[in-house]
Design goal:
CATH superfamily: Metal-dependent hydrolases
Structural class: alpha/beta
Bound molecules: adenine, zinc ion
CATH architecture: Alpha-Beta Barrel
Distance between the termini: 19 Å
Strand order of the largest sheet: 1-2-3-4-5-6-7-8
Number of helices: 17
Shape: globular
Number of strands: 8
Order of helices and strands: HEHHHHEHHEHEHEHEHEHHEHHHH
Length: 324
Amino acid sequence: MPDFIADLPKVELHLHIEGTLEPELVFSLAKRNGITLNYLDESALRAAYEFDDLQSFLNIYYLGMQVLLTEQDFYDLTWSYLSRCHAENVRHVEIFFDPQAHLERKVAMKCMVLGIHRALEQAQKQWGISSCLILSFLRHLSEASAFDTLRLAEPFRHYFSGVGLDSAEKDNPPSKFSRVFKAAKEQGYRLVAHAGEEGPAEYIWQALDVLNVERIDHGVAAINDAPLMARLAKERIPLTVCPLSNLKLKVIQQMSELPIAQFLDAGVCVTINSDDPAYFGGYMNANYQALQEAINLSKADILRLALNGVEACWLDEAEKMVLT
Ligand code: ADE
Ligand code: ZN
């Protein structure tokens, strides 16, 4: 089974580029940028990756990314992730970045976008890995801050395929961003949002009906809402589920609780992704593998999950054919 998973062409649709920052890169970028870290070395930093919930992870995630300052830093980060994709036979990626978390440190939008884009372009040329870039708003910040970010992105509009919504879900409902998402839609962005990770199924309904997103990031809370399950299945609205993330952030207590088999049986377009692999203990193959072992997925199930990724991605039909 590990070979079957490793050899399978895969698509990744839920990946925060800042969540691929491995401790080794944190330390080398800190050195290059003259930043002093509060951890003695890489293993001390890695030892801090024990989380109780989403917020305890976000605290360390925002801390870690403070070493990202220059265009070259964003290039190196993205290139390192894409090298892993190449090694794991991931053929297409749709990646998030969190501009507000860097603007706070006076890093220019241009510097983030050009650094990430240069790596994406090189991976396309060198390895044939295709990609989309998604600008994600931080939902713990205000609507006004999201609007400022959308405005700052305007000169770089052509680099982005869509906008997303991430960070602390509790008490930050999708409806807080209804006007920003409407404005983004008018500018031609495609729309996705994290919903139903720690938050209730109600937030998934809001993401669909108020924000008008076409894909839900996580969405595991849908399992408790039969009418929502029926809607997701009927409209083939994709869920980008992240097994190791859900386990590490205690959304589930054991991998066997993840309702992937139920989603598949119900006809939901569920996909497998890595979210923040540097923090959660594994990239794409590790996510498929951990899930397979926990719920005894068959090769046919794994193939279905990978094909759901192709169905859910933003390539055109001809490009999708190449992936299958
Ligand atoms: N930002 C990075 N990873 C995230 C996650 N799993 N949920 C919400 N926001 C995030
Ligand atoms: Zn995420």
